[in-house]
Specification:
alpha+beta, 4-stranded mixed beta sheet, DUF393 domain-containing protein, protein-disulfide reductase activity, 5 helices, DCC1-like, globular, single chain
Length: 118
């Protein structure tokens, strides 16, 4: 089993603020990788553009994408985040949350013009 790894877009202000807020809870438990840094190489089988489009979290066994990725690292963060992750896995709420996350992620790419480093 490998160490859990969160792949986030540090060029996105909203993403960076959330990670900076959670960093004290996460840094000793998971690797935090800013995919906007030049020289970043995606893990085998993944494309940078896809990783920029949605959050990716490798939980040590498999890759979680989108809302599932958020739920994964929120569980690691603990406290109120663990409670929020539990609530969002309830039937119906997960589907609504996933729909909202996907809309937000698409908006973020268009609105903020987040692009992979060259």
């Amino acid at each position: 089993m490998t160490r859990p790894t969160l792949y986030f877009d540090g060029s996105c202000g909203m993403c960076r603020r959330e990670i900076d807020h959670l960093r004290p809870r996460l840094r000793h438990r998971i690797d935090l990788v800013d995919i906007s840094q030049s020289g970043f190489q995606p893990p085998a089988g993944y494309q940078l553009a896809d990783m920029m489009a949605q959050l990716h979290f490798h939980d040590g066994r498999r890759m979680q994408v989108g809302l599932r990725a958020s739920l994964g690292y929120w569980r690691v963060a603990g406290g109120g985040f663990r409670w929020l992750a539990r609530v969002l896995t309830l039937p119906g709420l997960f589907q609504c949350g996933d729909w909202a996350y996907n809309r937000w992620a698409a908006w973020r790419l268009r609105r903020l013009r987040c692009e992979p480093p060259r």
